[in-house]
Amino acid sequence: MTELVNPFSHEYFMKQALIEAENAYKQGEIPVGAIVVSNNRIISRSHNLTEHLTDVTAHAEIMSISSAANYLNGKYLKDCTIYVTMEPCVMCAGALAWSQISKIVIGCRDEKRGFSKFSPSILHPKTEIVWDIMENECSSIVKDFFKQKR
User: Fold this and answer.
1) Of 3, 23, 47, 48, which has the fewest CB atoms closer than 10 Å, so is most exposed?
2) DSSP characters for 76-145?
3) Catalytic positions
């Protein structure tokens, strides 16, 4: 009997988050994308919208958390995973903690503003973190964006 291989790897879902980051880039937003997955199904997707909405809280993670909670008809994201192309800031990490999300998969680190620099223990104690999935691709899009801005 042949064992079934799960096609839904971290790389598969991070590629979906990168599509969102590319959408942000095209709109002049800092290119960060996020998706929330439940039972190998994408239940929300977003990218930074701070410029478009003139709202400093409209980060990809916040938008995805709200959308996923709406989809699930509840405020907690237990048994869900968020894939985010860049390490969340403290605000987003706090929101992820309050959502009680089970897992956070991060593309690249944010050495300047990432939560791990300022408040590494902010997340819910049961939240699992997976670092550096498709790190080169996730960091390249941000570096390219800021090169173009200069």
Assistant:
1) 3
2) --TTEEEEEEE---HHHHHHHHHHT-SEEEEEE--TTT-HHHH-TT-S-TT-EEE--TTHHHHHHHHHHH
3) 61
What digits encode the pLDDT tens for the residues 80-134? 999 999 999 999 999 999 999 999 999 999 999 999 999 988 998 899 999 999 9
- Determine contact, residues 47/16, Cβ cutoff 8 Å: no
Residue at 148: amino acid letter: Q
pLDDT tens per residue across span 12-33: 999 999 999 999 999 999 999 9
Amino acid at 73: N
Cβ atoms of 65 and 41 within 8 Å: the answer is: no
